[in-house]
Structure formats: structure tokens, C-alpha cells
């Protein structure tokens, strides 16, 4: 891994704790990588991807505070500077995405436009 490459995405302590909790489950497939990315769709044009997946030849590997993750090389332009958080409140529970590249986001917070 090229350590000179800027890490495009950061995680809050809460998000890291939840990811590590999920990865420590007995049924977790340890051959999978944490994937962050985008896909077409959603109310605003693009939706975030956050899940566990196989690494492909198009992926780059990054590390943030000990957490390794993969991202398609083409997705960096959409996600550079994004912060992922974990919300656990009365109105919302789940991962949230704070993306400085988004020109507009939808009410659900998982879809955006650039």
C-alpha cells in the first residue's frame, strides 16, 4: 500500500466502533473488506455504498486509524473529504455521510448529487 496517498474518507470514533463491532461478530466473513463507494440511483442521482465486499483489481486500499477499507479508484472524486459517522438516536440509527463534494443531498442522507 502506498502510504503517501491521501486517505479520501475519515470515520468518527462512533463509526469506527460500530464497524469493528460488526466485524467482530462470529458470523462475519473475514475474507471480505470494508467497501466505501458510490453507485447510480437514489433520489439525488448517486447513493453511498458502505458494506463488506471482495477486493477487485479496480480497488485501492486505504487505512484510517487502523481500519482498512477499499474503494474503487474512480470513486475518489466523489468522496474525497467525506466523513462517516454512526448515529444512534430516537429519530435515526445508522451510518451518516458528511460529503463536502455533494451539491445537494436528499432527506434520507444516503443519496447526493455533485
UniProtKB/TrEMBL annotation:
PANTHER family assigned? IRON-SULFUR ASSEMBLY PROTEIN ISCA, CHLOROPLASTIC (PTHR47265)
InterPro entries (alphabetical): ATAP (IPR016092), ATAP_core_dom (IPR000361), FeS_cluster_insertion_CS (IPR017870), HesB-like_dom_sf (IPR035903), IscA_plant_cyanobact (IPR031108)
What the entry lists under NCBIfam families is as follows: iron-sulfur cluster assembly accessory protein (TIGR00049)
Task: Indicate the segments forming the Core domain, all copies.
Answer: 9-109
What's a BP term from Gene Ontology annotated to this protein? iron-sulfur cluster assembly
The name under which this protein is listed is [Fe-S]-binding protein
Single annotated GO MF: 2 iron, 2 sulfur cluster binding
